[in-house]
Design brief:
Elements lengths: L1 H4 L4 E2 L12 E4 L3 H5 L10 E5 L1 H10 L4 E6 L15 E5 L4 H27 L4 H12 L2 E6 L4 E4 L8 H9 L4 H9 L2 H7 L2 E8 L2 E10 L2 E9 L7 H21 L9 H10 L6 H11 L7 E7 L7 H14 L4 E5 L2 E7 L3 H17 L3 E4 L9 H17 L9 E3 L8 E3 L1 E3 L4 H7 L5 H9 L2 H12 L3 H10 L4 H8 L3 H15 L6 H16 L2
Parallel strand pairs: 2-3, 3-4, 4-5, 14-17
Antiparallel strand pairs: 1-5, 6-7, 6-10, 8-9, 9-10, 11-13, 11-14, 12-13, 15-16
């Protein structure tokens, strides 16, 4: 930093182990006070600036002290050879007094800058506040992005000339074209193995420096600085490392080890979806710990981000963001996909929560498979298979990431909207038709807990015939007069009972997918497939 603050100079000899920072600068004019021991309690944090004679006297009387020898040559003078391990040489035509003054001013600027960033950290400030405090110090354009490729901070006055970066700044995140470029150049692999500051490339406008942050072994954030205005130097890298230290402190506060996905509730969820036996006692303790109530219905979602094995750290960070959106859910990672179990919401809120889930998937260029509702948490293994099948069927149906999205219809929703969320209930029939090797256990589970079977069990308890009524209504293609005639009922009575069935079992018979699945389940119930 001292070399950057004095124009037309360069560092000569720098001993190994020299401190990067000093808390005070003293010069020849202050030498008397230094020699009398006024600085002895903190002498290792003080840098003396002077000529060869002054430096020799200073380091001789201060065995732990450091000196900066200002001279025209770049090599250490002979009289300082005995103190070579504690003397730095600065080659410049300036006198020692000027260098000491410039260095002191720089030290004051850096101290004020650090104090401002420290206040921001203590007050829970944002990444943007840290970058705002650093813009005038670093003098170059920079961006900070998280592992979801959202740009969380950038310089406001200085913008990089790179059109791709400027477009990303305008959008608030790197678009798919930029991400594909990153992955083509295997940058995620570097992010997963390296950390700290590195020279990324040298473009036509100047060097590009990156700083990779990995917290708890997980790629968490990425800082890129374009050296287009202020030249790259050791002093600039030292200043950038100060900002990087503050960003790392912010990250460590943001990401706690207790929310990682290899322990606690996440580990138990993985055991459940893999069919590993979990004791009843442990299961109840898990439900209490995770905040999931024992009663009611659950829903399981699988978010496929499309990450490869070597990109798992990206899936971890995306999973953390998903957990922030659904703090009352349990999120785990399996095969680089996020698996989330949550309590089912009231029908009026279901569309809203699905929209949040869909928006999250879009942000990471992923897609979501959603299971049927299930009542026993032990059935999470079936729900996981359902969600995975929904994703697979959506891809085979021409609804992959690059194809047209599905249309989201949820009970209680007024209109359809484009989504990357795919529900198993819409794909069971397609699975039965096209799957070469069906999971018979899963099919039996789906039919055994399907609406026709639930209605049949209710009929047996209450002595009603709603199961037959719904079947005839569907076979008659919802022609109420014809169905009422076959059932020997009044048409209004039939329509009343149909509306009651829709409300009680949460189905919408206007949807052809619902009718198709119900008829398939009736077929399996009656004839076994």
């Amino acid at each position: 930093m001292i070399a950057d603050s004095v124009k037309g100079c360069s560092l000569g000899d720098v001993p190994d182990g020299a401190p990067r920072w000093f808390t005070r600068i003293v010069s020849d004019e202050q030498a008397d006070g230094a020699l009398f021991g006024a600085l002895r309690p903190r002498v290792e944090d003080v840098l003396f600036v002077g000529d060869a004679a002054g430096c020799s006297a200073y380091v001789e009387h201060h065995p732990a002290g450091w000196a900066l020898c200002v001279q025209d040559e770049s090599v250490l003078p002979a009289e300082l050879a005995a103190f070579a391990d504690r003397v730095i040489v600065l080659q410049t035509s300036r006198n020692a007094g000027f260098v000491a003054t410039a260095a002191s001013c720089k030290l004051i600027d850096v101290s004020e800058w650090l104090a401002r960033m420290q206040r921001s950290l203590l007050e829970g400030g944002s990444y943007q506040e840290l970058v705002d405090a650093s813009e005038h110090m670093l003098g170059n354009a920079l961006t900070v992005s998280d592992s979801g490729f959202r740009i969380v901070a950038r310089t406001r006055e200085l913008l990089p000339t790179n059109p791709l970066i400027r477009e990303s700044i305008a959008n608030g995140m790197f678009d798919k074209k930029a991400l594909d470029t990153f992955r083509k150049n295997e940058r995620p692999q570097r992010w997963s193995t390296r950390t700290g500051i590195h020279l990324l490339e040298v473009s036509e406008t100047g060097p590009v420096v990156e700083c990779i942050f990995r917290i708890e072994g997980i790629y968490s954030a990425h800082l890129v600085m374009h050296c287009e205005w202020r030249p790259l130097s050791d002093g600039l890298l030292d200043e950038l490392s100060l900002l990087a230290d503050c960003i790392e402190l912010h990250l460590k506060h943001e990401l706690s080890a207790g929310r990682l996905f290899d322990q606690g509730p996440a580990r138990t969820l993985v055991d459940l979806i893999e069919g590993v036996p979990v004791s009843h006692r442990k299961l109840n303790a898990w439900l209490r710990t995770s905040g999931l109530a024992c009663d009611g219905f659950f829903e399981l979602a699988v978010v496929d981000y499309g990450y490869r094995d070597e990109e798992r750290q990206l899936a971890v960070y995306a999973g953390l963001r998903l957990l922030e959106l659904f703090p009352d859910a349990v999120v785990a990672l399996k095969e680089n996909c996020a698996v989330m179990v949550r309590k089912c919401f009231a029908r009026g809120d279901a569309a809203t929560h699905d929209t949040v889930l869909d928006t999250h998937a879009r942000s990471y260029y992923g897609r979501v498979g959603l299971s049927d509702r299930f009542e026993r948490i032990e059935d999470a293994r079936f729900a996981y298979r359902q969600a995975v099948i929904a994703l697979s069927m959506a891809a085979s149906d021409g609804r992959g990431v690059t194809a047209m999205p599905n249309r989201l219809w949820r009970e209680g929703a007024d209109a359809a909207e484009d989504t990357w969320l795919f529900c198993f209930r819409d794909y069971l029939v397609l699975y039965l038709l096209v799957a070469e090797q069906q999971d018979e256990e899963l099919v039996s589970y789906c039919v055994g807990r399907g609406v026709p079977m639930r209605i049949l069990e209710a009929d047996r308890r209450a002595g009603t015939q709603d199961c037959e009524l719904l079947f005839v209504y569907l076979v008659c293609e919802r022609r109420s007069s014809l169905a009422a005639e076959r059932l020997h009922l009044h048409r209004n009575t039939l329509l009343y009972r149909i509306r009651r069935i829709e409300q009680e079992y949460g189905i919408d018979l206007k949807r052809w997918q619902v009718r198709e699945r119900l008829l398939a389940e009736y077929q399996i119930m009656c004839f076994g497939g």
